[in-house]
Amino acid sequence: MEENANLTAERSLEIIAEQIERSRNVVAKDTGQSLYLSGLATMGTAVIVALANGLSASPNGHLLWLVLPFIIWLIMRIHDRKQAQVPVSLVGTLVGRTWWTFGSIVIGFYLFALIWNFMALRLFDDHTTAAQAMVTITPVIILLMGMAVAITGHILKRRWLVLFGILGGLLVAFCEYSGVIGSIIAYSGASVKTIIVFHVIKPCLSVFLFSLIGLVIPGWMLKKQNP
Amino acid sequence: MMFPALDPLLHSELRLAVISLLMSVDEADFTYIKEQTGATSGNLSVQIDKLTAAGYITVEKGFKGKMPRTTCRITPSGMEAFKNYVKALKKYISAGK
Q: Considering its fold, how many domains does chain A have in total?
């Protein structure tokens, strides 16, 4: 771009729109990279938790989820050091605050649910009553994650990202609540041990699936769309 | 119909691009502005100096680690000038239709 004062009104507006769009694209690309890396970290953690749960046939491996925020924080720190700094903008700030809010609610909810469920198991001798009193964690987190992805799509003006968030969140949460896959396994004549293992790794499968649909694929698409 | 005069300081391709870019961010590095506008360092420096002299932007020189860093930020009068410029442009365009 050179010094040129012979501009038409249309060209002037074109320059303004172009620069604002460029700015949005820079943020979109950076957000894409963050979604992609966070998604990969979440999928990796889901595999580790599933292995821990599957091998021990107990849900204790779920405590490993507490390490995930630190892993994501560490990856982002390394990524930010390597990459040229993206200027602070309203769009970037809104996206950042959306995910910060999501992270805070999820960590708070997860800790609350852990304590609540632990208390339910201690307070009720009857396992059916205890199970009814327990809080289901995964679908809530997946719905929140879907909402965060959809809001990010609205901020970045990417309609397909909004759809990924809403449809991915609803689809995975539906599978979690309905127990469709669990029922199929139960009716297929699987052994009791297989059913128990499935139940302790089921949340990991859901998180893995949503991370792929809601984070990794949209993140990769955002990166590719904004070279 | 009387047309409002277009701010000559903003009515230039590169200066307009710089101001438009700074309108959408809190602050931006010289390197970032250079990348986004595709301008040469020398030309960009001259235009940034003109915008600074008019009080439309502020420039802060500092360091990021050991690397020198020049940060530009739009001022309230720069924002006002930009708004007036866009308003005037709209009048020109609507009169042309």
A: 1
| Interface contact B43, partner A, CB < 8 A | yes
Helical axes A217-225 vs A138-156, angle rounded to 10°: 10
- CATH number for position B19: 1.10.10.10
- Residue B66, domain extent: 13-78
Within-domain flag for B56: yes
Instruction: Please state the domain count of chain B.
Output: 1
- Residue A191: burial class (beta carbons within 10 Å; 0-12, 13-18, 19+): exposed
Q: What is the interface size between A and B, counted as CB pairs within 8 Å?
A: 85
At residue B53, the pLDDT reads 95
Reported pTM:
0.74
Share of chain A above pLDDT 90, in %: 16
Calculate the alpha carbon distances from B9 to B16, B20, B24, B57, B68 in Å: 8, 13, 19, 12, 28
Asked if the Cβ–Cβ distance from B20 to A89 is below 8 Å, we say no
- Between CA A190 and CA A194 the distance in angstroms is 6
Mean pLDDT in residue range B79-93: 88
Across the interface, whether the CB atoms of A10 and B93 are under 8 A apart is answered: yes
* Interchain contact, A85 vs B13, CB within 8 Å: no
Residue B29, in any domain of the structure: yes
| Contact yes or no for A64/A52 (Cβ under 8 A) | yes
- The interface predicted TM-score (ipTM) is 0.82
User: Is position A197 within any domain?
Assistant: yes
Domain contains A2 = no
Task: Please give the structure tokens belonging to residue B19.
Answer: 């101001």
> Considering the domain boundaries, does residue B1 fall inside one?
no
